[in-house]
Amino acid sequence: MRNRWRNMYDELDRCIEKQHYGICYLTPQICEQLSQRHQQLIEGLDVKTSFEPLPETRNFFRDLLSNDEGNAVVIVIAQAYAVTKPIKRDTGFIEGGASGEDYHRTLRQLLSKVAQIAINTLPLKNTDTIAYHVDTSPYIDREIAFVAGLGEYGRHHQLMTESSGAGFNIGYVVLPVREHYLSQEEEASECRRLLDRINAERLFLGCHTCNACVNACPVGICGEKEMARDRCISYTTQKKERLTEEEQRHMGRRIYGCSHCIYACPYDSDPIEDHLGEVDLIESLSLSQRHFKKKYGHTGIAWRGLRIFKRNCIIALNNRGIMLPQVDKDRFITDEFYKPYIK
User: Fold this and answer.
1) H or E stretch at 15
2) Residue ranges of domains in the chain
3) Which of 75-89, 258-272, 312-326 has the highest mean pLDDT?
4) Which residue from 114, 156, 138 is spatially nearest to 56, judged by alpha carbons?
């Protein structure tokens, strides 16, 4: 398709980093075939957490065929982020992907630019139903990205590219196009390409002889056939339900996220020591809702809210062996949500 829509590709190459976008040209016939294979794959996933909906709600290609008649162009992009480590050893820590500008916002802005490039080139059916997704759909974003050609899966179950490792976030835009926008020859060629891709070798080439993330993972989920996301420290830091003693211990001083596997991966850049993401644990216990939004409203952690944030600060203090100030202890002990974490 590059020759047919060369201007669009040239614009995308200027707008997005190398290796950081992929495109699927879809028709009813292509969606039908991808849907069948995709359903087989997602039904085999033994993953049931609050972040992973059940398989019957996760078939992107089936739903596209049902809702939009299957005629669409999907452009998937990846936006790299800086992997950071805290400088101070007495603070809490928000992982690099969530400590800076909220990637939901920055990716959405970039997707808007991508959509405008496509609007100027592709035979769109309309612009009213263009859909943007950055962690906002029931689908498996990394799987849609994989089919579009964005990297392969590492042993830590995240998508990877040679240029950025796994240190990137994913977003995609779905553009409705007119019927018969592809010739029969183009449709057949694209169908073969996408089916070959969905059935391709999924393990990143550099992972075949490397166990760095497997050895680094504190909870032992890297390298397993299916990732047990409910045991991942990143999931634990976002979990609303009561945390076990073991879950709390594994969090260390993390307030949000976990990057043990990315720190260890030879394809990811060495983490940058930075004050970005450092959290004053005692001071944070007194944050009001207004001050929390002012301080963290622009970051990726804001969506999980102040109560989870403060709970994690208390856990980080416990893990560092620091007693809560009595005034904070008296205040939190009366709240059933915080009470289990007060020592």
Assistant:
1) helix 6-15
2) 6-86+102-204, 212-341
3) 312-326
4) 138
Model confidence pLDDT, tens digit, residues 205-262: 999 999 999 999 999 999 988 778 889 999 999 999 999 999 999 999 999 998 899 8
Q: Give the residue, 51 or 229, on which the prediction is more confident.
A: 229
The rounded distance, in Å, linking the Cα atoms of 140 and 194 is 17
Positive or negative torsion for Cα 322, 327, 332, 334: positive
Closest of 113, 121, 163 to residue 9, by C-alpha: 121
Strand partners, 171: 77
151: left (phi over 0), alpha (psi -120 to 50) or beta: left
Give the ranges where 148-305 is alpha helix by DSSP (H): 184-198, 212-216, 233-238, 245-251, 260-264, 281-284, 289-296
pLDDT at position 6 over 60: yes
Separation of alpha carbons 270 and 251, rounded Å: 22
CA distance 100 to 298: 8
Give the C-alpha separation, 89 to 117, whole Å.
46
Rounded percentage of the chain residues whose pLDDT exceeds 90: 66
Distance of alpha carbon 101 from alpha carbon 81, whole angstroms: 10
Biggest CA pair distance of the chain: 74
